[in-house]
Amino acid sequence: MSSFEGTWGFPPNARVAVIVARFNQTITQNLLDGALETLRRLGAPPSAIDVIWVPGAFEIPGTAARLHDRYDALITLGAVIRGETPHFDYVAGAVANGVHHLAARGQKPVIFGVLTCNTPEEAEARAGGKAGNKGSDAAMAAVEMLTLYQNLSGA
Predict the structure, then answer these.
(1) pTM of the predicted model, to two decimals?
(2) CA 59, CA 51: separation in Å to the nearest integer?
(3) CATH number for the domain including 77?
(4) Is residue 114 part of a domain?
(5) Which of 23, 32, 62, 147 is least surrounded by CB atoms within 10 angstroms?
C-alpha cells in the first residue's frame, strides 16, 4: 500500500499568486498579512509570491482563471459579510463555485480562503482574532497541496 501526503516546506522554484479582494479591506489585509507571513515562514522567498488585488470577491474566480497557467498554486482571499439583502448569497455562492470549478480541474492547487460571515465581528475573529487567521491557514494548505501534487506526479 502506498501513502501520499504533502509537506510544509515551500518547493524550490515554485510560484504562488495570492488573489485578494479589496472590498472589506480591513479584513482582507489581515488575511493577506497572515498568508504572506506563513508563506515566508515555510520558506517562500518574496520573489516567489505575487499579490493581485481585485475590487471584490466576485472578481476572484475570473482573475484566478486568467492566472491559472502562470503559477504553481493560487490562494484566494476575501471577506463576504451578510447584509440585509440576498446579495450575500449570490456573491458567496458564485465565488465558491467559481473557485471550486478551477480547483476541481486538479491541475494545481487553488485554495479557497474567502470568508463568508454573518457579521463583521465573525470576519474579524477569523482574520487574526480569536479564531485564528484563515489567510495563514490558506497559505499552509497551498504549500501542503503543492507538495502533494508534486508527490502525486511521480506516482
Answers:
(1) 0.96
(2) 14
(3) 3.40.50.960
(4) yes
(5) 62
